[in-house]
Amino acid sequence: MLQLFPRVIPSDKESTLVISGDDLKGKRKVKVAVQSMELYNLPHCDKYFIDEDKRYALSDVAVKGGKAEFKFTPKGEQRHRVYVDTGARKLTFEIYSLGEDLYKLNPYKGDTHMHSTESDGLFTPAEVVAAYYERGYDYIAITDHHKYKGSAEIAKKMDKVATFFKAYPGEEVHNRGMGFFHIINFGANASVNEIINADPDGVFAEVTSKAEELKKQYNLPDDIDEKEFAFRYWVSNKIREFGGVSVLCHPYWDAYGEYNMQTPMLEFLLKNGIFDAFEVVDDDDKTGNGANLQTAMYNELRAEGVKIPIVGASDCHNVVSELFDKFFTYAFAEDVSKVKEAVMNFNSVAVEKVGNEYRVYGPFRLVRYARFLTDNFEPEIQSLRKGVAGKIEDVIKKTDAKAMAKIEKTAEDYRKAFFGRR
Which residues pair with 60 in a beta bridge? Predict the structure, then answer.
């Protein structure tokens, strides 16, 4: 087996790449070539015909101490293919070159909308955390209906034991009962639901008393219900007050025969920055309709110049269902504790899995990089973490930081090698 590290390198600078593995035993040299996929480093013929057999020449790279090292200076941000011929077999790797600002950030995979047995989910908070860790996630937020406590408790437990995985506190905020309003509180240090649950009538009276004032302040169009707007505005501001990110979730969820939000309201909220982020992909109705309409709205508003921070989230209630790991976010941050800031600063993309294919939404630069990660990094991390869910549950039960450190080490060592952080 051969490995190539690092797989992510700075653009427009010379980097040293290292091939290693059992296949190099007894070898004195291997042949290597690098093909850049966009800013072409290999010539086309004068007739613009690609003759694959003659297009590039493999160069000899000496094997010393079981390793073959070679230099490469990539042009700009892009994917590159590395072809290796050991004499016994041929292999292809992919690497990616990044500008300095993005190179210094780490990609973190997460889900900001899910449920546990604290509300209507089928698995306990510990089981949810364990399942997501095993699947290669770096952070999650359990967002139970009406309830914050269980999410906050598991977040505190994980902070005690884990170094490279973070459970953020969260909740799905409703006005009362199952509630017409569904709003994600991601990462706040206190609960908005607890305020509503303590006095739903009082909160409703307080919020609606300001509806007319807000209508004038924001010059609400006639097709925007001022009381609904006032409630969404109040919840979002409370989440911010408590240090969280307010997420506008599943507006086109087919809820009881109608969409969870009308289009004029959605457009107005996004254009006026009432929420911190938009859950642009999810699939509550399991048809793809909601994700389709939400991405269309996102793309249309972006074309109009509206800047919208985004997340992808599953709204998963069952970690063995088809929704588990179908929608997620890549946030690009200095460390996993800075995910909220990354989302707010437009350093995130929303990801949707359709069968074995990925659809990534967000700024083109980040989408291009994220697609490299889904193809090259994610499968390896999932393989390294396979089968650890039971161990994670045991770690949580015993609050065993030493055991967690041993579990985390294998995947974290791979991450450091992959991104050149050694």
Answer: 31
Helices 226-241 and 263-271 meet at what angle, rounded to 10?
40
| Helix (H/G/I), strand (E/B), else coil: 272 | coil
Output the six-digit token pair for 391. Answer: 């161990």
CA nearest neighbour of 60 among 92, 89, 31, 23: 31
176 CB-side CA count, 13 A: 7
How many Å apart are CA 77 and CA 31, to the nearest integer?
Answer: 25
Could you give the 3-state DSSP secondary structure of residue 238?
helix
Token pair listed for 68? 């073959």
CA angle 379, 383, 387 (to 5 degrees): 140
Distance CA 52, CA 94 (A): 18
- Give the pair of three-digit tokens for residue 164: 């490279």
Average pLDDT value for residue range 242-261 = 94
For 416, the token pair is: 């450091």
* Residue 349 and residue 363 in contact, taking contact as beta carbons nearer than 8 Å: yes
Give the H or E element holding residue 262.
none
Tell me the three state secondary structure of residue 222. coil
Q: What is the pLDDT of residues 45-81, one digit of tens each?
A: 666 666 666 667 789 999 999 999 999 999 999 999 9
SS3 83: strand
Rounded Cα distance between 331 and 347, Å, is 6
Helices (H), 258-356: 263-271, 289-303, 339-344
> What is the dihedral angle through the alpha carbons of 174, 344, 288, 123, rounded to the nearest 10 degrees?
-60
Please give the backbone phi and psi of residue 369, each rounded to the nearest 5 degrees, phi first: -70, -40
Q: Is the model's pTM score more than 0.90?
A: yes
Order of strands across the sheet that contains 277-281: 170-173, 183-186, 245-248, 277-281, 310-312
Cα separations (Å) of 192 from 42, 107, 171, 272? Answer: 58, 30, 8, 22
- Interior angle at CA 282, CA 275 and CA 143, nearest 5: 65
Q: What are phi and psi of 331, to 5 degrees?
A: -110, 135
pLDDT tens column, 400-412: 999 999 999 999 9
